[in-house]
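Hi C.,

You asked whether I'd gotten around to modeling the 438-residue construct. I have! Everything is below, sequence then structure, no commentary in between.
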Amino acid sequence: MPVALARWAGAAWTAVMLAGAALTAHSMEPPPRLLDGFDDLSRWHVSASDDVKASLRTMAGAEGNALCIDFDFGPVSGYAVVRRELPLEYPENYEFSFGLRGNAPANTLQFKLVDASGENVWWVNRPDYVFADEWQRLRFKKRHIAFAWGPAADRTLKRSAALEFVIARGQGGGKGVVCFSRLSFRELAPGPLEPPPAPILRASSTLAPTRPSDALDGNPVTAWRSDPGAGADQELTLDFRQPREFGGLVLRWLPDAHASRYAVDYSDDGERWRTVRRVAAGNGGIDPLLLPESETRYMRLRLQDGPARAYGLAEIEVKSLAYGATPNAFFEALAAEAPRGHYPRAFLREQSYWTVVGIDGGITQGLLSEDGALEIGPRAGSIEPFVLTDDGMVSWADVEIGQSLLDGYLPVPTVTWRHQDWAMSVTAFGSGKRGQSQ
């Protein structure tokens, strides 16, 4: 089997009655209670760690006023915090929400709740949060709020005495401004019914005898097809019949009937829509979409272009929150369905061993894995080998792998792949000076 091509690829990584009961439960939820509209900042106090500058000011928010914290980390690590005494009692299920915008580098965003003793803290911690220039609405539910620290034996959050917003130095550091508006609290129903009611589907056009519901019947043999005479702009809308939480979607297209350009929209009322994802160069097959912490009553696929005159969807899979809990969880889900070797071992939850690559005292070190993947530096990604042959792609899962050091002891590692018809060696080493190593 001759080798056609060797290349390096970047490895980045039931009912109607039950449905009615669910709708009734959600309709009985009380409306959000405004905790602070930030019209009076005298109730808020700003502080910072040593050598970090922080100050408060007000500005116009998306609705009403906003509290803004200006901060400057300078050369040090630390934090800036705004705090308000705000006694709260917690029901069985609940949600905090507030508007957020910022003109600042990516740093850690923390939302904290402190009890009357001041020693027990619950929080939502978002490292290296990317602040948007436009106002966004953040929602932190009971399941998002974790016990951070303190001596409490019972770590269930039942009451708190103070609330804090914190900006802590992360990768970005530097200085900037972060603003908060309309801090609200809402009691939620204890939880959605399981399983959730079956969604209702409708389409802007349908080619008989297919039906929109064929795209969500759990049967990959059936499919919804749009009418070829209806044009390229088509819509497929799902009504979940109650607000539904999920972590992503998987779209399974019919061959040569995919949308190469499309958008995913959400709506709470079926009238006002917001776009949450755009795909510009879809190539068909299976499209997994990471949509973390999604919650909506209606979801719409706006199909805008494709290689054929019509679209065909065999199945839409609505994935659980766990699917999109983190980027790693998303890639673990993809790896579980892919052929072994298409993803690094870590995404299969297998131990992977590495050795350090670099020069003595160098500021940058790499890591070479036992499978020949090279992590070229901190937060810089990995480069993983694959070999394309006449019979298909060969990965670390298809070969016998060995490791060695130069001359048996020098810190220049080599990983060797042995196939029945060929062998390949990957060697990594450091070079340069201490201040400019690579």
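If it helps when you're writing up: The two ends are 36 Å apart (CA to CA).

Thanks,
B.
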